[in-house]
Design brief:
By secondary structure, this protein is an alpha/beta fold. It has 9 helices and 7 strands, in the order ββααααβαβαβααββα. Strand 4, helix 6 and strand 5 form a beta-alpha-beta unit. Helix 1 crosses helix 4. The chain is globular.
Amino acid sequence: MIHRLQLRLLTWDVKDTLLRIRHPVGEEYATKARAHGLEVEADTLKQAFGQAFRAQSHSFPNYGLSHGLTSYQWWLDVVLQTFHLAGVRDAQTVASIADQLYKDFGKPCTWQVLEGAESTLKVCRKRGLRLAVVSNFDRRLEDILVGFGLREYFDFVLTSEAAGWPKPDPRIFHEALQLAQTPLCPVPGIGDAIGSNNQGELWSDPELGVADGQRAEKGIPGSRPVNCGLKAAVRS
C-alpha cells in the first residue's frame, strides 16, 4: 500500500490525470478550420486525427527526435495528414491551421485542470512528498503548467522530448531518479491508465530497469477526478 511506503518521490503524468483538453480534438480542429474558411465535420476530423496520430507515432516515435524532427515539425505533419485524410487538399491553408493549433495547444486556454487535481497536489506537498512530472508530452508542457499555477508543486518536469526516450522506456525513469538525486527505491507513478506506460505501477531502477511486479493501490487513479483515487495514498 502506498501510504505504508517510505516515499521519496511521487511522479505524475499530466494529460487526463491533471489536465485534459477543454474541447474534443475534432471540435478544436474544425473550429480552427472554420476560422480559415474551411468547413470540415468535427467527427470526420476526429477519426482522421486518430489515424494520422497512430501512423506518425509508429513511423516517428517520440516526436521523431531520432529522425531529426522537432516536436513542432512532428505535430505539423500530424495536422497536415489529418486534414488530408479528411479530404482537404489546400496544403497552404492547412499549414496555417497547423501552426495555429500548435500554438494554441501550448496555452492554458486549450486545457482545463481536472477536478481535485490542485487540491491533491497541495495535500501531497503538505505531507512532505516530493513531486515530479514524467510525461510523454513535448516541450510546451512546462509553460502550460506555469499558466495554471501548477508548476510550483513539482521539483522538476521531465518530458519524453527533453529526455530523449518515451515511457515506458526505463531510461526516462532513470533520468528522473538522477534529477531527483534520490537513492534507488520504489517510486510510484500516478497516471490515468494503469499499466499503459508504467503509470499506476511502482517502479524502481536496480539495474536501469523498471520493476513491474508491484502495483500501486488500485484506487490510483482511473478516469475519475484525481483526488478520489489518491485519498488512500496521502492519508496518514
